[in-house]
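Per reviewer request, we include the raw input and output of the structure prediction for the construct analysed in the revised manuscript.
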Amino acid sequence: MSEVRIVKPVKVGIAGLGTVGSGTVNVLKRNAQEIARRVGRPIEIAHIGARRDNPACNIEGIRVSRDIFALAADPELDILVELIGGVDTARELVLAAIGNGKHIVTANKALIAEHGNEIFRAAHERGVDVAFEASVAGGIPILKALGEGLAANHIKWVAGIINGTGNFILTEMRDKGRSFDDVLKEAQALGYAEADPTFDVEGIDAAHKLTILASIAFGIPLQFSKVYTEGISRITSEDIKAADYFGYCIKHLGIAKDTGNGVELRVHPTLIPKEVLLASVNGVMNAVMVDGDAVGPTLFYGAGAGAEPTASAVVADIIELGRALTVDHDERAPYLGFHAEAMSEAPVLSMDDVECSFYIRLHVQDRTGVLADITRILSAKGVSIEAMYQKDVVEDDERVSIVLMTHSIRESALREALEEIAALEAVVDDIMRIRVEMLDA
């Protein structure tokens, strides 16, 4: 008579029953049988910590605590899933759970970007794992792709649309000729943007995600404070039309590059050629391009937010940790894809050291010699003009719009040139400067 093997379930605690938390409960329950087949044993939601219930999911029969720290102290739990958001309380909860020997799954990009180095050290000392696939680009498995699927490559650069709100705004401005302020109000009404949209439209959310992408791509420590961040609130319909005239599309990108002399970490509006696949990513969708020396450019596309797309990534991490529970800690994949002792000390470059092409738009008074003054200043700073056009004077408006496309130039040189041009008496309004990236088009 064959011996009956009793399989112990993996016991999971979920902290937070918001959009992602409720989605995670639903996916775990709906796909329980298939998940168990993948892990080799059942995944059981044993404990939920939430201030209030969420009608979007059924938690009948599951133990619920209103104090989320009860999960960190629960001796039954193998894995704590942090989905409360924010930074300070989340950090305290995660470190407490790690101290009690629990593995961590989180969707919290700010937590990982700002405190990941500390959290990983604590986890390593305690011999537990931290998984955070859902922290970047929602349901797109980009972190696993970088850390595992593309592990054979030297990654040259990563460029991504990693904030759906900003992409929705720029798409509406381009397709319908609407103003930034008008589209932002709609994004807030639709729930894409918060009442305070700063994190989305000024690039802070994307900077958190880029910090994580760059660490896994290049094997550098998490360095959120060194990411250059610039938002999209100054983009106008005039800029979008001018970009289109030159064959480009404006996207709000997170860009990380290994230059050989250091790493560039920057989030800003960017002109990219229309034929690049990223230019076709519209609305609230996300996409990340990765260029590896062996594989060449690759594109990862999908939903960057939402209950079940993000839950897809959360549950994938739970499955991975469930499989790894019987594996010795030192034999598991490193948190950031590279072993801690082998992390690179490559510096993060100042924006002054970045070299790229630029789009420049300025308004000047309709006077003889103004264009000559502008081109003289640019030439003196080594800025070479690739293309230019000048709009006719609009009736009852003495301003003339001049748009320039430059060849590649060091950022510091262009900044000095624009400061001199801005000081010209004939220049009115602020000068708009947008970086251009070809992305191997």
